């Protein structure tokens, strides 16, 4: 299983959780409520998951509210990714060689 990086970008007006998967940089804005953007990121992750199992590891040293939110988000996301990957393999829907 591969481990990809997750990072928090803190800007003046917003905070962004950045998920790096190979060449792709996926972003979830933590300070805005945009479910369609989150859904789009998740769909991209599902496409990548067909190529092989992976999880995320949060790389951030600032122990603020955004860190704790992102940490919990990554924990839940990793759980979902593992569960979905198992289903993909059970139904032979992976693209692994």
Task: Write up this protein.
Helices cover 42% and strands 28% of the residues. It is elongated. It has one domain. It has a 4-stranded mixed beta sheet, with helices on one face. The model has no long low-confidence stretch (mean pLDDT 94). The chain contains 2 helices and 4 strands; from the N terminus they run βββαβα. It is α+β, with helices and mostly antiparallel strands.
List the helices and strands and how they pair.
Blueprint: E1 2-10, E2 15-21, E3 24-29, H1 35-49, E4 54-58, H2 65-90
Parallel strand pairs: 1-4
Antiparallel strand pairs: 1-2, 2-3
Regions with pLDDT < 50 over 5+ consecutive residues? none
* Biggest pleated sheet: 4 strands, mixed
Radius of gyration (CA) equals 14 Å
Residues in helices, as a percent range: 40-55%
Number of strands: 4
The tally of structural domains comes to 1
Query: Strand sequence of the main sheet, in spatial order?
Result: 3-2-1-4
Helix/strand structural class? alpha+beta
Strand content: 25-35%
Name the average pLDDT.
Answer: 94
The SSE string, one letter per element, is: EEEHEH
**Distance N terminus to C terminus?**
14 Å
The gross shape turns out to be elongated
